[in-house]
Amino acid sequence: MNHTTQQVQQLNPYAIALCATGRWIASRHWVPATGGNFSIRTAEHSALVTASGKDKGELSPHDLLPVSWAEGELVCAGQPSAETALHARLYQLDDSIKAVLHTHSVQATVFSRLIPTEQHTFTGYEMQKAIRGQLSHDQPCPLIIFENTQDMPALAAQVATNWSQVKGASALLVRGHGLYVWGQNLDEAKRHLEAWEFLIHCELERIRLTGSL
Ligand SMILES: CSC[C@@H](O)[C@@H](O)C(=O)COP(=O)(O)O
Ligand SMILES: [Zn+2]
To answer: Which stretches make up the Class II aldolase/adducin N-terminal domain (predicted)?
Structure first.
């Protein structure tokens, strides 16, 4: 990145907003040890994606790399997140997705390893209404769990194959790994993240106290 591009990125409102979001997420202890990654859509076939290996609580705007995709090919000048393929696939699957946030919280990681099935349905929590499309605590709120892999294009393909089950929930869990959420803008993605982390935390406590899945 040349000096002029770097200066432009310092003033990029998308990049500034994602850095602030990273500080907020890190303050909740949801992205330890460089875990997690974030992106925000900048046009139909492009997004800013966090650079790989950064402390996500200490991002500066030049750690947000422009990534574009066309006909399945990812193009980026630097080294974007190792999980860029999944971010890009989510944007391709749903035009209304404008931001994607991925976290590695203790609660999501432990919860994903306790649940043996491919889906867990939340019900009875008022907080479910913080999620787009959820109108009542009584409305079942499913969360799909994918098996972890280091092959990100394969995970992205799995998500695409199962998209009809996933999209209503605005989130997915990767077993032993972490949570992905998305939204129609960055604020909605943040709200979904906070709501899902809360719901997962509640379910984990319920399972711990009752011993029942
Ligand atoms: C701390 S290792 C975590 C990584 O393997 C990965 O899962 C992750 O979320 C962060 O990868 P990154 O390439 O920095 O975006
Ligand atoms: Zn991760």
So the answer is: 16-204
